[in-house]
Structure formats: structure tokens, C-alpha cells
Amino acid sequence: MATLTETAARRDSAEPPDRRPHRRTAARGIPLLPAVLVLGAFLAGPVLYSIYLAFTNRALRGEGASETSFVGLDNFRTAFDTSEFWNAVGLTLVFTVVSGIIGQNVLGMALALLLRRSATWVGVLTGTIVVGAWIVPEVVAGYLWYTFLSDGGSLNGILGFLHLPNQDWLIASPIIAVSFANIWRGTAFAMLTYSAALSQVSPELDESAQIDGAGPVRRFWSITLPLLRRSIMTCLMLTTLQTLSVFGLIYVMTGGGPGIQSQTLPLYMYEQAFSYGQLGYGTAVALMLLLVGGLAALAYLRVLPKEDKE
Amino acid sequence: MADWITRPDHTRRDVLRLVGGAAVAVPFAALAGCSSNSGKTLRVSYQQFGSGKIMSNYLTKVAAQFSKAHPDITVELVPLVAAENDYFTKNELMMSSSRTACDLVYEDTFILKSDVAAGYLQPIDHLLDKWPMWDQFYPITQTAVQAEDGKHYGVPIFTDTRAIWHNKDLLAKAGFPAPWQPRTWDDILTAARAVKKKLPGVVPINIYAGKASGEKTSMQGFEMLLYGTRSKLYDEKHKKWVLGSKGFIDSLQMIKTIFDEKLGPPIANALDPNLSETVSSDWFPHGKLAMAVDGCWIGGAWGEGAAAAWPEAHKVLKLAKMPTQHGEAPGLVTLSGGFSWAMPAKASQPDLAWQFVEQMMGTQNMTDFAIADNQISVRRDIAAQPRYQNSSPTVGFFTELVKNTTYRPALAPYPQISNAIQVATESVMIGSKSPQAAAKSYDAAVIDIVGKSETMKEA
Predict the structure, then answer these.
(1) Most exposed among A23, B184, B205, B430, judged by the fewest C-beta atoms under 10 Å?
(2) Is A30 domain-assigned?
(3) According to the model, what pLDDT value does residue A23 have?
(4) What pLDDT is stored for residue A306 in this prediction?
């Protein structure tokens, strides 16, 4: 009852807010203070400090590294003038689109659809394998793929056995090689999301469409997909954000090489900040990576409410 | 109890206030990384990587000697567990605060000048001048610890040199009986071509190139070529970085020739970060490689109990000096790196730290350490010791090279310039650029790194 009147009161914004409960709420917040302080010191503090760093020339070594001064937007200007930065941006987009947005989601959706009507043991077996790839730590997955694709690796062993020519994807097309590895590793997440979403779709809809004479493709496009839109958007957003920040997998497989042909933004940032000691610049690049992620998230979120209104 | 029931609100608030207040009042303990320096503690930091105990054993021994002479002083050893780049970072972070700075640090000559420029270290000329041992150091190694201001900032501990390791049996089969000593780059190419022709399946020569091998590419590979020409990376006189030199292009051409004619490792191996591992533990012991331009330390891989133990190594593998391009004087080239002891600007016990250095650097102690760690000494008194000369089959050869060695221009921008070199070598080895075009890109990269005013065309 109380809750009802409260919500009614909240809806009626003309009513002046009651002060006393507010003060009481504030007093009740006191026990939270230690936690808030600790969070502020150890979480918000470093975040704010790193935003500040992006606008300074903080460096670990080299001329005047012991003095840090504010340089405004210099770091960002330097980045925009550096071809390596744009190379990293391009590769990051390729990597994210190919392995995150397309690869993981399409494959995850396909697996989820196939498993929908499969026998239980097939589902369990496939699920185990796919999820197994996902729970392997990133570094281990990277190393597995390195040993699979590298010159003396198992793939060339198999090709040699079949008298086929050797491949050298790690050298010839490194960004595609790491994209494959990332698809292998991240498909499980999309598959689980879509399986859960599909289980919410009632089979009657599908069946009635079938009676009306719709083929499987038509049913997927006109019935299943529209019903899954929200899950798809959520899943796209999460895989995009995860893929943008992949570091260990690429670092282990190619180290960003050969040259800079697979140096995505996280690797570029690492090189600048920790190989060259340019902390300020590295942080500025990190901030831009955050911005890219933020923009992607916003784009997905803008699409979402429209679906809700329908 | 009745209170709680009748006036729950009030009492509960009181209790909450009390608890909350108490919680807020609890002071956050300061998270000090290092213990604070009392007047009686001397702190020495060093790099601890992998399971090697040689350094810590040696320092423990010296610390015990030191404590005997100074019973009131405790020596605290601070091992920084990290690989190369991470070690630099950890060390620099510690030196940047007086609360964590140690009194003595273990500095790679590669990063020393960068750290001087950053203001992390203090000059020690006044101490070196009064130290009788200082005259025993080869002059070239003394300049390695000299910064741009002409002052010395460290005491070199040991160095390393580079040459051509080669398999004498394979070369003999190709028509080059021992002792083999090339006089020019062409001699190297001739031998490599002969190996390729007569011994299919054997890699003729390995010269590190490409970004994957990192500093090995710059130092064991490219600079071993460049410093055999008349050009350099950095002009000491004008204090500027040299662009587009003839020697730079010639060195790239040499790398291009090796990879174009397939005289080097297959490209997939050449671009593998683990190439050095492959060379020492697979190719050399199994007779798959004829020559390699590499460092003095790779012999360590074949010692007793090592990963790739190979008792016959020194019977089969011989050493030749790296020649200059056309046999110009002095007729050989070698590059050196190595570590030194340095004193942070924020060290709290500089005088004690110096006394500790003197203790460490005694002839006896240093000889023991050099032998235990397979080092190439930087001092005449140690090089003259018979037990040092006999400590390994190669130590005499590599120590002999020190007199003619070249140190990298390890100034602050060097790590980035080194990276630009690696990129240049990689673009010629995979055939994406001509040596001239790769040198042009290098010039643009260097101007990017240091600014146009810090560069010059070759005189």
C-alpha cells in the first residue's frame, strides 16, 4: 500500500518533496561512506588520473621525464598526425567487424539455430566444445593458435601429410589469422545468448507460419529475427566492446607484427606506453579507444528503443 | 531491549551513526612499497629474471663481506622480478620517488642515458676520480656510461660482444676449410652461396632482421653491418641523428641480398619472435645452420645441464670476426651492450652505496662473478687473470674484441629509432620496399621521433 502511494506521489511531480525522509536517507547512507571512499580512492581515482594523464607529457624516461607538465591536446594532435595510429585504428575496425560483429554473431546464431532442433547429446557435445574454447584463458588460446598456424605448426603438418602446400597466414595476413582465433574463442558467448533468446520464442508462431506455406528462410527473416532484435542488439554491443579491447590474443600470436600489420589500438597503446615509456601519449590513445567503444555502444543503444516502441 | 522495540528508529540510527562514524574514522594504512630508509640500511636493487641465482648469490656474498666491515649497516637486496622492458619500467618508477628509490641500481647501458636525461641518476665523477680501479677499465667502456653532459653516471660491470659463429664442418664441405675469416661482406656472401649450392637443406647464414626479433635485429643484425661501413646512426660531434646515409642503404641492400637469394632463414622463421631460440637449441646443434652473426652468450645454451646441452659444440662451432664492408680498418666490427651500477638521484645513502661498489668491484669478487655468469669483462685486471681466460673456450676471443667495440647511441629516443630500423629491415626482407625507399621511410620516422632540428644529412 505504502509503495503504491509512494509511486503515485512520485508520478505527481507537482507535489513538493518531503524533506524529512530525505535527511533520514542521507543519514542512512553514512554506513556506505567507507565503501564509497575506498571505491573513490581505488577505482574512480585512477580513472580520473588517467584522463588527466592523457593531457600531459608524462613519460617514464628520456628528456625531462622527471617533470610532468600539462600539454593540452598535444597528444591527440600527435596521434592524428601519425600514420601508425591510423593504421591501428583501421586494423581495430577490421578486427572488430570481421571477428566480433560478423564472425562471432553469425556463427553463434547459426549454431544456436542448429542446436534448437538437434538431439540432446549433440547439443551437449557442441556446447561443451564451443564453451570450452571460451573458458580457455586468452593467452592460452593465443598460444594454441600460434602453435596451430606457425611455420612448424600442426596445420602445416596436416597440409604436408596431405601433400598440400604450406600456409603462412601469420605472416601473409596476420589480421585475418587473429580474427579467426578471436571468432573461435568468442563464438560461445553469442551462441549462449542466442540460444537463451530462441528458447523464449514460442514454437506455435513458427508452426503457424509453416502451415501458411512459409519456407525456413522466410520464417527466419520474418518471424525469428524480429523477435530476437533486442537480444541481437545487446549481443552485438557486448561482443563489439569485448573485441575492441582484445590484447593478449594478438600479442601472443603475432606481437602486432609482422611490422605493424596486426597492431590494433590496444597493442599500439601498449607499445607507446610501456616499450617507449610515453605514458601520457599511451593514455591519450587509450582514451580514444574508450571513445570508439562509447560511440559503438551509443549507436546500438539508439537502435534499441525504436524496437521497444513497436 | 524494550528500547529497541519501542523506539526502533531512533536507536537504530544511533547505532548506525556510531558504526558508520567508526568505520570512516579508521585510517587507511599507507601502502608503502619499500621499507623506509633508516640511516643503517643500504638498499641495492637488481634484475631477477627466470630462475637464475647467480646475481643474487654474488650480491649476498658481497653483502656479507660488507656487513663484516661495517657491522652497524644492514644491506637490503631488492630483486626486481621482470623481463627487459618491464624491468626498465619498474626501476624507473622506483627511482622517481625518494620513498622507493634504492641507493644502488642495476642499469642497462641501453637505458642509462635515457634515465640520465629523465633526471633519475646522479653523476659519480668525483668518486671515480679517487678510485684506483677506474684506470683498469677499457676507455671505450668508460664512455658507455658517459652521458651527453660529459659526466659519468655508472660503473660498467660487464659487456657483451658479437661475431660470426660458424659450423666448421659445414663450411669445409662447402669448400671453406678452417680457419675461416672473411675480410669483406662479399666474402660472407660467397661462403653463404657455396653452402646453399652444395648443402641443400642447410640455412647458410642467419642475420637478424625484422620487427619480431626486436633489439636483436637492430644490434646483432643491422648495426653490425652499419658500423662496418663509414656511416653511423648518430653523429657524436654535431649531436644529431644521421639520415639516409650511404652505409644505411648499403646495409639494407646486404639484408635484401641475403633474403632475395634465400641465403637466410625461411621468411616464416625469420619473422618468428622465437628465432634466437631456434638458432641456438635446434639449428646449430643439428647442423642445419652454417653461420650466424650472434652474441657471445649463445654458447651458454650448450653447456652442461643447459636446455640444449651439446658437449661437442666448441669442437664444431668456431668464431670469426665480423668484417667491415670492404675490409676497411680496423678490419672488424662488433657492438656492445652490458650493465652498470648506478646511483639514483634520490638515493639516501650515496656514500655508503659507493663503498659497496668498491667492495663489489674488487678484482677477486669481479673475477668470480664474471666466471660464474659467463661474462665478458670490461677491465684489464680481470682479463689478465688466467682463471678468467680459461673459464670458457670463447671468452678470450670475445674479450679481445672489446677494445674495438662500438656502443649503441643509447640516447633517450634510441628505443623508438631502433624500432624504425627494425621496420626498415623488415620491409626490405619481405620485398615490400627497395633499400632506398625503406631508408626514406626511416628518415621520415626519425624526423617524427626527434624533430627535424635533431637530424642531419651525412657529411
Answers:
(1) A23
(2) no
(3) 76
(4) 59
Contacts of A168 in chain B (CB under 8 A): 267-268
Q: Are residues B262 and B129 both part of a single domain?
A: no
Q: Give the pLDDT band (50/70/90) at residue B336.
A: very high
| 8 Å CB contact between B233 and B417 | yes
Q: Is A212 helix (H, G, I), strand (E, B) or coil?
A: coil
Residue A190 CA to residue A104 CA, distance in Å, equals: 6
Nearest CB among A66, A260, A276 relative to B120 is that of: A66
Give, rounded to a whole angstrom, the gap between the first and last alpha carbons of chain A. Answer: 32
Domain-terminating residue out of B297, B313, B333: B333
Mutation test of the interface with chain B: which of A24, A84, A151, choosing the one with the most B Cβ atoms within 10 A?
A151
Answer whether B92 sits within 8 Å of A60, measured CB to CB: yes
B83 to chain A: which residues are within 8 Å by CB? none
Same domain, B19 and B49: yes
C-alpha–C-alpha distance, residues B221 and B279, integer Å: 14
Residue A196 backbone dihedrals phi, psi, to 5 degrees: -60, -40
The cell for B194 is 657455396
Residue A146's closest chain B neighbor by CA?
Answer: B272
A33/B19 touch (CB, cutoff 8 Å), yes or no: no
pLDDT at res. A11: 46
- A168–B268: do the CB atoms touch at under 8 Å? yes
Looking up residue B178, the CATH number of its domain turns out to be: 3.40.190.10
Q: What is the pTM of this model?
A: 0.77
B34: domain range? 14-160+337-403
Please answer yes or no on whether A82 and B448 come within 8 Å at the CB atom.
yes
Residues of B in contact with A260 (CB under 8 A): 211, 423
The answer to the question of residue B447 being in a domain is: no
What residue numbers bound the domain in which A155 lies? 82-309
A277 vs B contacts (CB less than 8 Å): 88-89, 92, 114, 415
Q: What is the pLDDT of residues B244-280, one digit of tens each?
A: 899 999 999 999 999 999 999 998 889 887 888 899 9
CATH number at residue A184: 1.10.3720.10
pLDDT tens per residue across span B56-95 = 999 999 999 999 999 889 999 999 988 777 888 899 999 9
Answer whether residue A70 is part of any domain: no
